[in-house]
Structure formats: structure tokens, C-alpha cells
Amino acid sequence: MANGRGRREPVFDAPAAEAGELDFHLSAEDRAGGSMTRRRASRQDDEDRRPRRGSRPKKAKRKGRSLLGKLIYAGVVLGLWGIIAVGGIVAYYASQLPPIDQLSVPKRPPNIAIMANDGSLITNRGETGGRTVTLKELPPYLPKAFVAIEDRRFYSHFGIDPQGIARAVYRNITSSGGLQGGSSLTQQLAKNLFLTQERTASRKIQEAILALWLERNYSKDQILELYLNRVYFGAGAYGVEAAAQRYYGKSARHVSLSEAAVLAGLVQSPSRLAPNRNPKAAQARAELVMSAMKELGFITPDMTKTALGQPAESVKPNGAGSANYAADYVMDVLDDFVGTIDTDIAVFTTIDPTLQGAAERVLVDELNAKGQKFNVSQGAVVAMKPDGGVQALVGGRNYETSQFNRATSARRQPGSSFKPFVYLTAIERGYTPDMVMEDGPVNYKGWAPQNYDRKYRGPIALRDALALSLNTIAVKLNMEVGPKNVAQTAQRLGITSPIQANGSLALGTSEVTPLELVSAYAAFANGGIGVTPYVISEVKTLDGKIVYKRPSSAGSLGRVIDPSAVAMMNEMMHNTFVIGTAQKAQIPGWPMAGKTGTTDDYKDAWFMGFTGNLVAGVWLGNDDGTLTKRVTGGNLPTEVWHNFMKLALKDKQPVGLPGGERFRNDVPVAGGGGDPRYANAGNGENAWIPPQPQRRANSREKNFFEKLFGL
């Protein structure tokens, strides 16, 4: 008790006031000890409240901050490596391109515009199919149509359109429709200029690099102009000019709004949207184009309404028919005049589009009407001026099915149409049209040629023997004057094909082309001047620079026939229309001359004829040499020639033949027309009874043929 006297124990659950009082009465020592105790307790409490090292809450908090930091760090690192990788890939594919400082836009393959003699376009030749055009030449809505449907932000992006790419990706993912693709016009141009059409990542990277280069070096209008002249429209047409000619038969300078919309929509899929093959799909696409143009303010609502009410209609291209045969001939000879071509040129020709169309039409109509009946499938027509300028050249029935040019490349036996060269050789050696020879059987060492009708007429004047195309007289003349001399005569007049100088030469057994045979006949039509056929009169660049101009004297072979001989030959060949095998070819009022030709096996049938202003020739037959069903020069070829000449000479004043004073220009009506030399043969046909002129005093027939046969 004593030890506890006066000592008070603290009461911890006492009220604060009492506790304060209690503490107040503590001794100084107690207060000091208690204070230290409280400070230790306070520090202990602070330590208890502070998270212990290694405790779970402390560890979780530090782990969360570390993961976020690591993710950020990893993202930065991966981004940097991605940039490096992309840069490396871009640098690698850029290294596969030519050095940027040496890069240049490749030249566009030159176009060759082949023009008719009236300045109209026949067709385009070259890799592109059309000439280069400038933006200034085009109607404003045409280039705007391409911008609207292919790259509406063309004038605002830097060559690559991120929004367009994003839209394309979204469309591919969602399979939703859209108006534009991912590639900008600049990228498409880069692909067309420098790259292949393969769809690979490497090609897209290179495309983007080149697009940036184009944007840096060319203005937007220059890029658009390059694009319009390089993009592919299908059917061999590169560039908007070629496409306009191909599908609408007109220059891009003259296309309507509806036609422009079709062309702009076509580049997405040239094969699927071709207006000549799939007009409904082409029109549907064109309506999308016009909708985009209206949305962008490129055209007014009224313009849209008008265009939708007048949808574009494709036409058959000019080059689909016989004009392409003429164009092929132009291209065959062009190198001889202009050499290497490195720019667009216009080739002005002698082709008359009216005569070209007429020649094609009459040939096709005749074959369609009678080809099957007579078993003849092909033909060729050539017409030229007497100076050699080719005005029509049809090399076959249908160019689309056969591009072989029978007018210039097919060598066929001319038959009796070769006989004028035999008669001319005789005339030049003193024979005259009035001289008489005996039409009778001939036999040369077993070879016994006969006349077409297997009949003989006895004594007959040369003029009538040629008109009636008697084989026996032609063979006798050939043997008398010498086959070599006849061959030389034909070559002098322009026959360039090889000629076999033998006894059968008089019957046209040496093959020739229609073009060279017509050009040889031109010497009769022009008074005796030999000509080389020509079709090119002038060549110019698009800026008007003359590359070639045909001299007025070019192509002339000089005088190859004496004027008196020309007069006698024309008299005899005129007789073919009066009493001979070409009576059906007469055109009233026009003095004409010519000669039919038929091979003895009916493989080939010809007619060569001329007036004073036009020479024309027709060949009919089969490419494989199949025999026709008795097609002769006097039936189908004569009909084609007559129908063509009737159109060619319409509304023209008759022109006399050289030497025309020697014979009448009034041609009797077909079938005799009261000519006293005709009498009825009893079979419904008019048979000609020849006059009985005096026989030549000096006959050269005796044993002469046997001596010359085979020469």
C-alpha cells in the first residue's frame, strides 16, 4: 500500500477532459516518459499505416505503372522500327526504278492518221489508235467527267489520295458500291507510263513513288492531259481521241456530254463496259458519271437532264470495212517516203471515200446475191486515175474476217485480160486492127488451145478477134511476135510479177496482182504514159510541218506506147463493149474500153476497163483455188465493174478516150441494137457475123508457130 500511496493509474477510456486532468496531475517524470511513449507509438502508427516494402498493395501499384510504361515504350520502339522498315522497303523498290534525276515521261507511240483525198479521216494506225489531243481542244465537260468518276480530289491532293485509299479499303471490306477507286489519276498515269499492270504490293509502292515524282514535275493540267492521252479504252484504243473514233466515229473534240460520260466510265473495265458490246452496262455507268459531275457542280441539272434524254449510241468504226485494205496498202509503202516516225503524223492519200464505199458495196452485194450459186467467195476491186493515183482499193469481201489484201498481194492468172499486151506487141510490129487472121484449130506439139465456145469463125479482123476474146488468134499472134517480146511489153507497161515467156502466155498463165494489172491498163487510158501506182500525196506532222510531198512528175515511167498504137488498141478494146464480151458493162454516153479475162478452168475471172478519167479492175475467185461454177469475166466481174462505174461516173461529164477520133463514141445498145453485123443465131442470142476483109498478102503462119513454140 505504501508504495502505491499517492499514485494514480491512468484511465484510458476516460473522457477527454478527465484524461486531460489526469495527465495534468502526472509527475514530470511520468509526463516525460509518457511523452516518449506517445512519440514512439505515433511513429509506430505511421509505420503501420505506411505500406511495407514487399507488401501486396505496394507491389500491385508499381506493377501497373510498369506495364503501361512498357507498352508505351514498346509502341515507340515498334513504330520507329516500322518507319525504318517501311523506309527500307520504299528505298529498295525505289532503287529498282531508274534514277529520279534521269526519269522522264516516255514518248507516246506515234499515231498515223490516214486521210482521204477530201481531208476526212479513213482510219488511225499505230499502237495507240488515235492522235494526241490537248485539253484546250476538248469540250470542258470531257476531262471533268474523268475527274468526277476517277479522282474527285485530283486538284487538291499531292498525288496520293489517303481518303480515296481509305474509301477503297472500306468498300472492299464491306462490299459496298462507290464511285471512285483507291488510286488517284496521277497513280494511274504513273502505272500506264512506267509500270506493268500486275497487282502486287511492290507495284503499288513504285506507283506511289512515281506519282509523287509526277506531281513534283508537272502541273495538274499537264498530268490530266497525259492521262487522257495514255489511258486504255479497249479495242486497241489508247487515249480519248482513239476511243472517240473507235466507238463514235468522231473526234474527241466533238463528243457530246452523254458520250463523254460513257468514255469516262469505260476506263474502269474496258472489256465489260464497251458501248458497242454492252450498251446497257455502259449507259448505267455513264449515269453514275453524270450524277457525280452534277454533285460536284461540273454540269447543271439541265445539262444532266438533256444528256440522260439523249443516251450515246456507238457506231461501226470507219476502219471496220474495206477502208482498212486501203490503209494497209498505205502502211506498206509509207516507209519508202518518211522513214522512221517519232511523232504523230497525218498521211494524205488519193483514196476517194465515195468511190471506196461504192466499190465495197457493189462487190459485197454481188457476192451476197450470187456467190453461193456460182461458188465464188472472194473478190477484189481497184480503181485509179489514169496518172496512177489509187482512188479505191478493196482487198476482199470482209476485212474483219480476213485481212489478206487480194488487191495488192494475191497473184492470180489473168486469163484473157492479158491479151491486150499480145495485141499491142503485134501493133508495134506493123499489125493493124483491120488485118485478118484465120480462126481455126491450132496444135503445137500436142498443145491445142481452143476458143471459149469451142467454135471457129474463119477469117476475122484483129479488132473483132480481141473483142470476142478468141484464144486461137491470141496464141498465133503471141507465137508470131515472140513470147519474150510480149513479156517485155507487159513489163514496160508496169507488170512487175515474174512472167513465163512461153506459148501459153497469150492466155494469161503468168500470175499478176489486180493492182499491177490495173496500173498497166492506165497507160491505155492516159495516152501511152507508163505509171507507177501511188496512194500517198502528202505527209504532215500535226503542227503542219511537211514531211513528204509527192512531186508532180513522180511515178511516171515516161512514154511506153506510141500515140498511134494507143489509138488502135483503144479502138479494139472499145469494140469489146460494142460486139464483144463486155456488152453488159456499157454506160450510155461514155466511151469505154477494156477486156474480160477467164482462166480455162474457171478458177479466176476478171474484168479490166477504163474511161478517159478512171481505170478499174475486178477479180473474183476463191482463196484456196477451188473452181467456180463457170464464172467468167463476162458475167459476175463485168456486173461488178458496171455497177461500180455507174456510181463513179454519176453526174460527171463524159471524157473521151485517147485516139477517140478513130472510132465512134456512141455505143450501141447491148445485144446488137440493130447493128448490121448482127444476125439471129436461132438460139435466142445474137451471134456476130464478121465482115470479110481481104486477107493479108503476106501470111506468117506457115510452120512459124512450131518454130517459136516454147520460146
Provide keyphrases for this structure:
disordered N terminus; 22 helices; alpha+beta; 711 residues; 16 strands
Contiguous low-pLDDT stretches (5 residues minimum) are 1-32, 58-63, 177-181, 663-711
Structural class determined from secondary elements: alpha+beta
The number of E-state strands comes to 16
Radius of gyration: 47 Å
Q: If you average the pLDDT, what whole number results?
A: 83
Name the assembly state. single chain
Shape designation: elongated
Work out the strand percent.
Answer: 5-15%
Kindly state the percentage of residues in helix: 40-55%
Contiguous helical run count: 22
What distance separates the N and C termini?
A: 178 Å
Query: Looking across the biggest beta sheet, what order are the strands in?
Result: 2-1-3-9-10
The main β sheet shows up as: 5 strands, mixed
Protein model, in words:
Helix content is 42%, strand content 11%. The chain is built from 22 helices and 16 strands. The chain is an alpha+beta fold. The protein is elongated. The protein starts with 15 loop residues before the first helix and ends with a helix. The chain has helices at 16-24, 28-49, 56-95, 141-150, 162-174, 185-194, 201-217, 220-230, 240-248, 257-266, 279-295, 301-309, 323-338, 353-374, 419-427, 462-467, 471-481, 483-493, 514-525, 563-578, 636-648, 704-708, and strands spanning 112-115, 121-125, 345-349, 378-384, 390-394, 436-439, 458-461, 529-531, 536-541, 546-549, 556-559, 593-598, 605-610, 615-621, 678-680, 686-688. The longest helix is centred in the N-terminal third of the chain and has 40 residues, at 56-95. A hairpin with a 6-residue loop joins strand 12 (593-598) and strand 13 (605-610). The strands form five sheets. It has a five-stranded mixed sheet with strand order 2-1-3-9-10, with helices on one face. A five-stranded antiparallel sheet has the order 5-4-14-13-12, sandwiched between helices. It has a two-stranded antiparallel sheet with strand order 6-7. The model is unreliable at 1-32, 58-63, 177-181 and 663-711 (pLDDT under 50).
